[in-house]
Amino acid sequence: QAAEAIWNLDEATEEYRESMALLNTAFETAGFGADTAKQAYEGFYTILGDTGQATEASQLLSQLATNEQDVAEWIDIAAGVYGTFGESIPIESLIEAANETAKTGQVTGTLADALNWVGLSEEEVNSQLSMLNDESLRARLLMNTLSNTYKTASDSFYENSDAILESRQAQLEMDDTLATLGQSVADLKTKLAEAFGPSVLELITAIADVLETLSPIIDIILKAITTVIEAVADLIGLLADAVGWLLDLLGIGGK
User: Fold this and answer.
1) CA nearest to 92, candidates 62, 39, 143, 53
2) Rounded-to-10 torsion of CA 181, 182, 187, 191
């Protein structure tokens, strides 16, 4: 069972490895490195406990942050928002709305909820955004506004969720370790397929050719067997009739 579990680790860790590949691509495209991608994912995962949500939020953050400090700041904002409102404000939606707001200069989506629900004026933020003609400056304004607003909630969330966060951090380390082994298994299977795949395909093709060749012969044999079975059945019928006639003749029949 242990050997089977290890052999199937490529499938078991596929989602995690795909998520890491997507994140690395997103962050490298945005000018960051793999370490920053991992920092974002681990930060969001420890808060949310969900691979899909953490991956999506991290991908979106790669377009919003301008440096590693921004990544850490937005993760703290996420902790404060999630600690305050839970799933009522999905973190990945919040990061997406912040991205769109930084681009358009108008507060939109769940970002409006994150502002309005704590008493901040959406109109006032829009007014401040309108005075900035640079997307990165608008993103920084949003980050600073949310950071100042949710700082206390963020600290409280980390303090009150200490045990859960430790558990999720341990899970992250386990996922990372298993993913490394899973990738090794996947590489091994690929090498085996490359080494023996052509031979297996040739063998399958040869077997298919043999079966195709035998098919007409098998049909003939089946027809012959059917003919024999029918002849035997007819013979048994004749014998039964003859035995019945003989018994009747001897007077030991059923009459």
Assistant:
1) 53
2) 100
Distance CA 139, CA 67 (A): 12
- pLDDT tens-digit readout, 78-96: 999 999 999 999 999 999 9
Residue 133 DSSP symbol: -
pLDDT single digits (tens) 176-210: 877 777 777 777 767 777 776 666 566 666 666 66
Tokens 């297996």 sit on residue: 200
The one-letter amino acid at 89: I
Residue 123 CB-density burial (10 A; 0-12 exposed, 13-18 middle, 19+ buried)? exposed
pTM of the model: 0.69
Average pLDDT over residues 225-245: 68
Q: Are 125 and 107 in contact (CB under 8 A)?
A: yes
- Which residue is associated with the tokens 């990544």? 71
Could you give the CA distance from residue 175 to residue 254 in angstroms, rounded to a whole number?
83
Is the model's pLDDT at 71 over the cut of 90? yes
Residue 234 has which token pair? Answer: 């007819």
- Of 108, 90, 83, residue with least CA distance to 98: 108
pLDDT digits (tens, 9 = 90+) for 135-177: 999 999 999 999 999 999 999 999 999 889 999 889 888 888 7
CA distances from 52 to 5, 33, 209, 217, 255 (A): 24, 21, 47, 57, 85
